[in-house]
Design brief:
Helix content is 32%, strand content 22%. It folds into 4 domains: 7-65, no CATH class; 87-166, PDZ domain (Pdz3 Domain); 180-249, SH3 Domains (SH3 type barrels); 302-513, 3-Layer(aba) Sandwich (Rossmann fold). Strand 22 and strand 23 form a beta hairpin. It is of the alpha+beta class. Strands 1, 2, 3, 4, 5 and 6 form a 6-stranded antiparallel beta sheet that branches. The chain has a 6-stranded antiparallel beta sheet with strand order 10-9-8-7-13-25. The protein has a 5-stranded parallel beta sheet with strand order 15-20-14-21-24, sandwiched between helices. The structure holds adenosine-5'-triphosphate. Adenosine-5'-triphosphate binds at residues 268-269, 315, 317-323, 437-438, 441-442, 485, 488, 491. Adenosine-5'-triphosphate (ATP) binds at residues 268-269, 315, 317-323, 437-438, 441-442, 485, 488, 491. This is MAGUK p55 subfamily member 7. Residues 18-71 form the L27 domain. Its main location: other. It is found in: Cell junction, Adherens junction; Membrane. InterPro entries: GK/Ca_channel_bsu, Guanylate_kin-like_dom, Guanylate_kinase_CS, L27_C, L27_dom, L27_dom_sf, MAGUK, P-loop_NTPase.
């Protein structure tokens, strides 16, 4: 043909007509038309005319023609020189949300892309950016629409969505993936949060969860992922600052409420003498000061020969802290140990200094209180009793695991790089289970001086449960492990296993504990 001029075209046609497959196809067509009588042929015709075979062939043809690029709307002929350059973006939407939020600019009234969620569909496309101005969605102008209306249009559309945007000013190139991990110290559910700009974009988490913070660009809403969750998409979480403000407003009402509750039974009793010890001031009990938000953490694994983390047991009186400590000590006396308390009372003759107690003078005891040498101290019948920081150090320096039970308000003083406390909260089971399991247990009463031990009363159980509740509310964010002391053997095994894990496996600790 005269119009086939170039040598390239000619050699292409020559090669195509010389193709064996084309030859076979032509032969096949002839055969099919000529001999329609044969059963095999009829069957083949039937197979080839099935819709899915047809669509397979059609897909093949589309791919072979490379015609899978989106068909863009034609460019308008009369482009106004004054008009900003626009970008036409076509995204195919599946069930996954787009992962972008929009807002109306207060001054210009323009619809602006406010956020792109890391790892979401919009982010992965690389086509939409924060600051882009949205002009049209599927050909519908959006300038005059409210963000909610636009969201409705988006959520109703399926398949390909075409956006017309005016690109915003280019953002700084994203720095490499941030690696800040935080432990959440509160529960968060975006569905119940009135403040969040978009509930669907929120990330729900529980107290104790580890979050990887992906972006802190926004002062009120950070973007984060749950650690260890396969999901690559980040969600919105309240920033530390924002949560602190919220929580501060809340805690005023909480304080009023807690004032109405019955007070703690404050004593940790001296088992030998049944003394009430370690009273704490009411102001101290309610002094949480720092609002629990997030704590920056890092992975930590104890190296062989390193000191052990201090094991701190917390729980309401009578829940079984001493029982659990005793069982641990018996199970491995070489490994576990407890502190020796100080007292200002005089030594009895069957006692030895440094065994039952460190016996010191009242004067020295008072000086030590002044110098903050005690974790807890108290007075009973004119004598002081207390647990010193040095008594903990002494156990740890022998490379033993130190078991300590304290009032929860002392936790914040113990949370240092030196002690790295592993805080276990021992919780009572339901009141029904308390009645069943504690039938033969004795509450060692410190209320009278007669060293009496009585069975638990119904009131003891109720108080145990309400105190546990209160402790969890107020200090729950500091507990790394919660053990319900229902069946003693089960609780003990759970504790022992948790302690072994902490000694041998990597886990999260506050960043400040690792660079000292
Ligand atoms: N799981 C359990 N089942 C049955 N009895 C239990 C259980 N745990 C503890 N007990 C019993 O309950 C009583 C109180 O326990 P324990 O003295 O260990 O409590 P505690 O938390 O140390 O209390 P306190 O702080 O007042 O000294 C003891 O008689 C103990 O044997």
């Amino acid at each position: 043909q005269p119009h086939v001029e170039s040598a390239d075209d000619r050699s292409f046609l020559h090669a195509m007509f010389g193709e064996r497959s084309l030859y076979s196809l032509v032969k096949l067509t002839e055969e099919l038309q000529g001999r329609s009588a044969s059963n095999e042929i009829r069957e083949l015709v039937k197979l080839l005319s099935k819709p899915h075979i047809k669509s397979l062939l059609s897909v093949h043809d589309t791919v072979a023609r490379k015609s899978y690029d989106p068909e863009l709307p034609p460019l308008p002929d009369d482009i106004d020189d004054e008009e900003d350059s626009v970008k036409i973006i076509r995204l195919v939407k599946n069930k996954e949300p787009l992962g972008a939020t929009i807002k109306k600019d207060e001054h210009s009234g323009a619809i602006i892309v406010a956020r792109i969620m890391r790892g979401g569909a919009a982010d992965r496309s690389g086509l939409i950016h924060v600051g882009d101005e949205l002009k049209e969605v599927n050909g519908i102008p959006v300038d005059d629409k409210k963000p909610e209306e636009i969201i409705r249009i988006l959520s109703q559309s399926q398949g390909a969505i075409t956006f017309k945007v005016v690109p915003g000013i280019k953002e700084e190139a994203q720095s490499k993936e941030p690696k800040m991990f935080v432990k959440a110290l509160f529960d968060y559910n975006p569905a119940e949060d009135k403040a969040i700009p978009c509930k669907e974009a929120g990330l729900a988490f529980r107290k104790g969860d580890i979050l990887q913070v992906m972006s802190q660009d926004d002062a009120t809403w950070w973007q984060a992922k749950l650690e260890g969750d396969g999901n690559q998409r980040a969600g919105l979480i309240p920033s530390k600052h924002f949560q602190e403000r919220l929580a501060n407003n809340l805690s005023v009402s909480q304080k009023v409420l807690s004032g109405l509750r019955r007070s703690f039974r404050l004593s940790r009793r001296d088992k030998k003498t049944n003394k009430s010890m370690y009273e704490c001031k009411r102001s101290e009990q309610y002094d949480t000061a720092d609002v629990p938000t997030y704590e920056e953490v890092t992975a930590y694994r104890r190296k062989h020969g390193d000191r052990h983390r201090l094991v701190v047991l917390v729980g309401p009186t009578g829940v079984g802290l001493n029982e659990l400590k005793r069982k641990l000590l018996i199970s491995d006396p070489q490994h576990f140990s407890v502190t020796i308390p100080h007292t200002s009372r005089s030594k009895r003759h069957q006692e030895s200094d440094g065994v039952e107690y460190h016996f010191i003078s009242k004067h020295l005891f008072e000086a030590d209180i002044q110098n903050n040498k005690f974790i807890e101290h108290g007075e009973y019948k004119g004598n002081y009793y207390g647990t010193s920081l040095d008594s903990v150090r002494s156990v740890l320096s022998k490379n033993k695991v130190c078991l300590l039970d304290v009032q929860p308000h002392t936790l914040k003083h113990l949370r240092t790089a030196e002690f790295k406390p592993y805080v276990v909260f021992v919780k009572p089971p339901s009141i029904e289970r308390l009645r069943e399991t504690r039938k033969s247990a004795k509450v060692i009463s410190g209320k009278d001086d007669k060293n009496s031990s009585n069975p638990f009363s119904e009131e003891d159980f109720q108080e145990m449960i309400s105190t546990a509740h209160m402790m969890e509310n107020q200090y729950g964010h500091l507990f790394e492990k919660v053990i319900v002391n229902d069946d003693l053997t089960i609780a003990f095994n759970e504790l022992k296993q948790a302690l072994r894990k902490v000694e041998t496996e990597a886990h999260w600790v506050p960043v400040s504990w690792t660079h000292s």
